[in-house]
Design goal:
single chain; two-stranded antiparallel ribbon; 6 strands; flat
């Protein structure tokens, strides 16, 4: 299994983190960048062609990842909504659309960060080297109609993590 968490965007000032001991990135502020001009120029040059540079960068890594995977292996790419459509097309190209396994959405925040509806999710794109040989272990066992408790869910978990039986009104 290979997990890739590439830069989400293509603007040098939204991805640049010159030091590993400081996690803050000041978008759009050159004074927050390294004082090494070669380092800044190299990073800016990396994205000279915008999304085309970004996709070339990612294609190279995905191609190597595919070669390194076992036949039953998978790759997971974490991405935001900004480029998820481009990255999915790229994964279709490198792995083949028939090897797409799942589009996994996960919550990242609940805060309002925009003038409109805030983005609260990021995504994992799951592709297999070979969909027919992919390994997957189900997390939960499915209950069949006659199994004990299959049709009855009567325990309520409260905000303090305690549990109690539900009542007809739900309150108690």
């Amino acid at each position: 299994m290979i997990y890739i968490d590439p830069p989400y965007g293509i603007a040098y000032n939204s991805n640049f983190q010159p030091r590993i001991d400081k996690r803050e990135v000041q978008d759009g502020k050159d004074d927050s960048l390294s004082r090494e001009p070669e380092q800044i120029k190299a990073y800016r040059d990396t994205w000279t062609l915008g999304v085309h540079s970004y996709l070339s960068y990612l294609r190279d890594r995905l191609t190597v990842a595919r070669e390194l995977l076992h036949e039953s292996g998978s790759v997971f790419v974490q991405i935001s909504e900004d480029n998820v459509h481009h990255v999915r097309e790229l994964l279709d190209e490198v792995f083949g659309s028939k090897n797409f396994v799942s589009f996994i959405t996960f919550s990242k925040t609940s805060g309002r960060t925009d003038d409109a509806l805030a983005s609260v999710s990021d995504y994992l794109l799951w592709y297999a080297k070979s969909r027919e040989k992919v390994k997957y272990r189900q997390l939960y066992l499915e209950k069949e109609g006659g199994d004990a408790g299959a049709g009855v869910y009567s325990i309520l978990r409260l905000p303090d993590n305690s549990t109690r039986r539900m009542t007809a009104s739900g309150a108690s």
